[in-house]
Design brief:
The strands form 3 sheets. The chain has a 6-stranded mixed β-sheet, with helices on both faces. Strands 8-15-14-11-9-10 form a 6-stranded mixed β-sheet, with helices on both faces. Helix 4 links the parallel strand 5 and strand 6. About 45% of the residues are buried. It has about 425 residues and is an alpha+beta fold. The protein is globular and about 55 Å long. Helices cover about 35% and strands about 25% of the residues. The chain has 2 domains: about 160 residues, 2-Layer Sandwich (Chloramphenicol Acetyltransferase), CATH 3.30.559.10; about 210 residues, Chloramphenicol Acetyltransferase (2-Layer Sandwich), CATH 3.30.559.
Length: about 425
């Protein structure tokens, strides 16, 4: 359809970073209770067909326009068979390999860039739903807007989730070129590494290679440990991830560890589109002491201004909009290529009372794309568990499983 929706500055940021060898897809793993009748793929497609016309969010398409700024258009119709597939795997390892495939493969541009995959495990007969969405369409906070297509609701529609599917796309007020230049200068100084760079650049090719792992810890263990350390949940996870990184990859210990974390600009968390920006802090050394690591995190956060850093990103993006699209792409990819080592997000999952097609959701695991070539870590708090999904490019960090091992030992051990 000819209707066009202008990209916001934050939407544009993720589209500039998207190339076949570095796709900007995120995946949400929804684990389902084995109780009840198995879900059939026809059930998934029927529910999608019932609700897909309830919001333009589900019909947004990103056509390929390599020399011009892309814009969302609306698909005239949606074919549920294109957006709901099924996959059979032997065990959980096979399911995670499917997640890696989704994270490493670019999404089609001729249809709305979202889909569901119903995964059947042969070892336990369990079923899992994988939701994949292009990051230019929505950030992880807006995942509820897509899950609403399958959630059992009182109204039998997406009405209960209207704030995630019917609100205007989140936008930051535009700024003039002088303000954008000042913000861009601050961002450039923030992202520029001091001393030796890791030397990684964003790869070229038809697809990417991704390796994932996961760690699950009880919320009670996290609560007890963080209280003993005098830390918030976010500070605790940042410290654990930083210490696990130092132990897993000691070859990177000769320089400060740079951690990027998302900062949402919509404090109501009720938006469509992208509302999460980024901030960075550094841990000064690779001290193998948990209390010191927590102290370092707290000192680094106290000495920074995350909200100002986060606001500079969309302002810089506004400044880039004055340039030709291909120049915007090049500059954004150069800035993100090697600017931090570790990206860590800590988020609540959607409501634990929700059911999908009659089945209870027992756990949620999130995998967000890498903006550069960092180790990407996403912690989701759901019911009585904190589950951490992590992803890396094996060419940059060859053993994400080793990082997961150290993280598990740290988070399940006694403080």
């Amino acid at each position: 359809m000819p209707v066009e929706i202008e990209l916001s500055s934050l939407d544009s940021h993720h589209l500039r970073l998207d190339v076949p060898a570095h796709p900007m897809n995120w995946v949400l793993v929804l684990e389902l209770s084995p109780d009840g009748d198995p879900i059939r793929i026809d059930d998934v497609r029927a529910r999608i067909a019932q609700r897909v016309d309830e919001s333009d969010l589900y019909r947004l398409v990103l056509p390929t326009r390599p020399r011009r700024k892309p814009r969302f258009t609306l698909a005239a119709s949606i074919d549920p068979t294109e957006h709901a597939k099924e996959h059979h795997v032997a065990d959980r390892f096979g399911m995670l390999r499917q997640v890696e495939e989704f994270l490493g493969s670019p999404m089609r541009r001729d249809v709305p860039p979202w889909d569901f995959t119903l995964v059947h495990r042969q070892d336990t007969k369990a079923q899992t739903l994988l939701l994949r969405v292009h990051h230019a369409l929505s950030d992880g906070f807006g995942a509820a807007g897509f899950i609403a297509m399958l959630i059992d609701t009182v109204s039998g529609s997406t009405a209960e989730y209207r704030r995630f599917v019917g609100t205007p796309r989140f936008k930051v007020d535009p700024v003039g070129p002088v303000t954008a230049l000042a913000a861009g200068t601050r961002s450039s100084r923030l992202l520029r590494r001091k001393g030796r760079r890791r030397g990684h650049v964003r790869p070229v090719g038809d697809r990417a290679v991704r390796r994932v792992a996961e760690v699950t810890v009880s919320t009670e263990t996290v609560r007890q440990n963080r209280l003993k350390l005098g830390a918030s949940t976010q500070e605790y996870v940042y410290a654990m991830a930083g210490l696990a990184f130092a132990r897993a990859f000691p070859e990177h210990a000769d320089r400060p560890l740079r951690i990027m974390f998302p900062v949402t600009l919509d404090h109501t968390l009720a938006h469509t589109g992208n509302a999460a920006s980024l901030a960075i802090f550094e841990l000064p050394d690779a001290a193998d002491s948990l209390p010191k690591r927590v102290h370092d995190v707290q000192a680094a956060l106290h000495g920074s201004d995350p909200l100002r850093q986060a606001m500079d990103a969309p302002k810089t993006s506004h400044g880039l909009s004055y340039l030709p699209w291909r120049a915007q792409v090049l500059m954004t990819q150069l800035m993100a290529a090697d600017s931090w080592d570790l990206a860590v997000g800590v988020n609540p999952a959607f409501s634990p009372e929700d059911r999908l097609l009659g089945r209870e959701v027992t756990n949620v695991v999130g995998f967000h794309p890498m903006l550069g070539r960092e180790l990407a870590v996403t912690a989701l708090i759901f019911r009585d568990r904190v589950t951490i999904g992590m992803m890396a490019d094996p060419a940059a960090l060859p053993d994400v499983g080793l990082f997961a091992k150290h993280l598990r030992e740290l988070m399940t051990g006694q403080v």
